[in-house]
Write a structure and sequence with these properties.
The complex is a heterodimer of chains A (335) and B (333). With 335 residues, chain A is mostly helical. Chain A has 13 helices and two strands. Chain B is built from 14 helices and two strands. In chain B, strands 1-2 form a two-stranded antiparallel ribbon. The longest helix of chain B has 34 residues. The chains are: A mainly alpha (335), B mainly alpha (333).
Chain lengths: 335, 333
């Protein structure tokens, strides 16, 4: 009996690792191919650039993963990001002496408020996440335009300290990367080693059992959307600081990239599963694609379709692997 | 799980008849029109109102099949991209010298194929949710449209083609007539045929439907294919109205369409909804947009209003359920 269980453990381990291994192999293959075609790919500057460009995406992917784990989805990410970015940019243009840290805090709080409104709608009013976030996406996007009066806040209106948030570097490595790393460490600990973090998975794998076993599912749902909002708010400040321009339509449609990064990273839309390492690889893959396709002189008009095909491919492979595992499990049990 | 009632022709008492979602929609609709009429002296005029329908009916064609998809409990967010792809293909083929009628048929075909691919993937890979499949095809279809046309615009359609978007039959816009015909067809299909009954059954319990002999997969593919076809129809009218096309047309249509259907009382949980509600909400949002446009309210404020309306629409039935349960509990005690 022990022998059998050990074998099963080994097999299960393989299965859960296979997905990430596949992703890693794919990333390495892609890098090698790109490097052969264009030798400027694997240079420190390019890698630094590439990871900087991926940092915001990867921060958002953390929040999105939590939401998807609870069987939800958040389409309002782009709008929340734009709203917080716009408000913080307006604040900076009015009070140029403001400490950048306070601006970051301000943006995060705005995002938190936006997120917690969605959380209340989902948890308390029992509105489907896709509908609630769709509605609030419109509301936040509209608010962004209203706050700014339809105008842009451009580079010359921003203080140097503010622009330095995203453009300065520590030890030759961009600040954005550091912020992303800190967030990943914090959330790795939060998801894997705290009670609340584990409860998120419990709510996602089976909401009814979670409720019966004494987990406050409403609170968890609310928390998850608030975290997503907070991270989107933070990303808003970083985004505006990085591009030195805040517009009404900042990051429109960016939510799809974030969801794509999660799906590529093996987060199951059915809820209950998803790993920090997975989404890190997922966003990295998207980042490499964004960076490598221009290096390979692929026409920019081809990029969207190529990305779409790769996402679809990853999703399908995922599904096929899952189905095979199911079949194997059934045959092992001799049903 | 609360009990859901499959039948939509339950015993109609006078009270339940007037406490339906559709009446609330009609009420909002009337309020919007009164407000519009008061705000703008140019509004309350037969020609204005009839002409206004031309401005928003193009995307309304997708709402009809989208209602089916929502009743199934699925969702399709690739419709905007499908519109763009079929429109672009049509324009490019016409500019290559293919006669316009053939190009129009190909436009419909492209939409149909796009829809079929969605349905086929969903049926073939049961693990995948509709959100993910249509999300990736959304990116792919729009991407293909960009590959075909890059940053160009294509147009120079024959003169008669503009009739689709701008023409009148008597005093009534051609597009309105076509829409009414389609709406009646889809309404009958959903509410008066076995096919429609099966769709409701699948939305309530797909496993039970399968075991009772409903060809679940076939119905799903048919519905998604229909959605693609109607996206093709939208492409025809939209392109005709605009006179030319670009790969980025119809961006965000999917959200508008879903908002219209959900506001019409079609539950995204599946198994509930009526076509008439969706049709009323199409006109509701359309006139709201048109009326606010007349008095120069920016489109962004409209976004807020539509977003809040959407949430309000979904929240009210939920609240009613919660409070209804409280009342019932008091009653039994």
């Amino acid at each position: 009996m022990t022998e059998k269980s050990i074998i099963r453990n080994i097999k299960n381990m393989d299965v859960s690792k296979v997905k990430e291994l596949g992703l890693i192999v794919f990333i390495i293959l892609l890098s090698v191919v790109v490097q052969i075609r264009n030798s400027s790919f694997l240079t420190f500057e390019n890698l630094n650039d590439m990871i900087t460009n991926t940092a915001i995406l990867s921060i958002l992917a953390v929040g999105m993963m939590l939401v998807i784990i609870t069987r939800g989805i958040d389409l309002s990410v782009g709008a929340t990001l734009a709203l917080s970015g716009m408000i913080s940019a307006l604040t900076v243009s009015k009070y140029p002496e403001l400490n950048p840290l306070i601006v970051i805090l301000l943006g995060t709080i705005i995002g938190l408020i936006c997120g917690s409104v969605i959380g209340i709608l989902v948890a308390k009013a029992k509105i489907f996440p896709i509908i609630a976030t769709l509605g609030m996406m419109n509301v936040y996007r509209g608010l962004t335009f209203m706050v700014s009066g339809g105008k842009w806040v451009s580079a010359h209106q921003m203080s140097k300290g503010f622009k330095n948030i995203a453009t300065s570097s520590i030890l030759g490595i961009n600040t954005l990367i550091f912020i992303a790393i800190i967030i990943y460490i914090v959330f790795y600990y939060f998801i894997n080693h705290t009670r609340t973090g584990r409860q998120i998975y419990a709510v996602g794998s089976n909401p009814d059992s979670a409720r019966i076993s004494g987990i406050n599912t409403d609170k968890i749902l609310w928390l998850v959307y608030s975290i997503m909002g907070g991270l989107a708010g933070l990303s808003g400040v970083l985004w505006v600081s990085k591009f030195a321009s805040a517009q009404g339509n900042t990051a429109a449609g960016y939510e799809l990239n974030v969801i794509a990064a999660c799906v590529l990273g093996g987060v199951s839309i059915a809820g209950g599963s998803g790993k920090i390492s997975g989404i890190l690889l997922g966003s990295l893959l998207l980042g490499i694609l964004n960076n490598a396709l221009p290096l390979l002189l692929v026409s920019p008009f081809w990029q969207q379709a190529i990305q779409g095909f790769i996402i679809l491919f990853a999703v399908l492979v995922n599904a096929i692997v899952k189905e095979n595992i199911k079949k194997k499990n059934l045959t092992r049990r001799k049903i | 799980m609360q009990k859901r009632i499959i039948s939509n022709n339950k015993d109609i008492t006078l009270k339940s008849f007037f406490f339906q979602w559709e009446w609330l929609l009609i009420l909002i609709f009337i309020i919007i029109n009164i407000v519009n009429a008061n705000l703008s002296p140019y509004y309350l005029n037969f020609n204005t109102i009839i002409d206004a329908t031309m401005t928003f009916l193009d995307k309304a064609f997708i709402v009809l099949p989208m209602a089916f998809i929502l009743v199934l409990g699925d969702i399709d967010i690739s419709v905007g991209s499908t519109v763009a792809l079929s429109s672009v293909v049509m324009a490019v083929l016409y500019n290559m010298g293919i006669p316009m009628p053939v190009a129009m048929i190909i436009c419909l075909l492209v939409g149909t194929v796009c829809g079929f691919i969605n349905g086929y993937l969903l049926v073939k890979f049961k693990e995948l949710s509709a959100v993910i499949v249509t999300l990736s095809t959304m990116i792919i279809y729009r991407g293909i449209a960009y590959i075909i046309l890059e940053d160009q615009a294509a147009g120079k359609f024959p003169k008669w083609y503009t009739y689709l978007g701008w023409g009148y039959v008597g005093k009534i816009p051609f597009i309105l007539i076509v829409f009414v015909v389609f709406a009646i067809l889809f309404g009958l299909l959903l509410h008066k045929t076995t096919f429609g009954r099966r769709v409701f059954a699948m939305g309530n319990n797909i496993t039970a439907s399968r075991f009772s002999g409903v060809k679940v997969d076939k119905i799903k593919i048919i519905i998604f294919t229909l959605t693609g076809l109607m996206a093709g129809v939208t492409a025809l009218f939209l392109t005709s109205r605009m006179g030319s096309t670009r790969p980025n047309v119809a961006t965000g249509y999917e959200l508008d369409v879903i908002a219209m259907a959900v506001l019409g009382g079609i539950s995204s949980a599946g198994g509930k909804g009526r076509m008439i509600g969706a049709v009323i909400s199409i006109f509701l949002i359309g006139f709201l947009r048109y009326g606010l446009g007349l008095i120069n309210i920016p489109a962004q404020i409209l976004l807020i209003i539509i977003g809040l309306l959407l949430i309000f629409a979904v929240m009210v039935p939920n609240l009613k359920q919660t409070f209804g349960r409280v009342f019932r509990m008091n009653g039994t005690k």
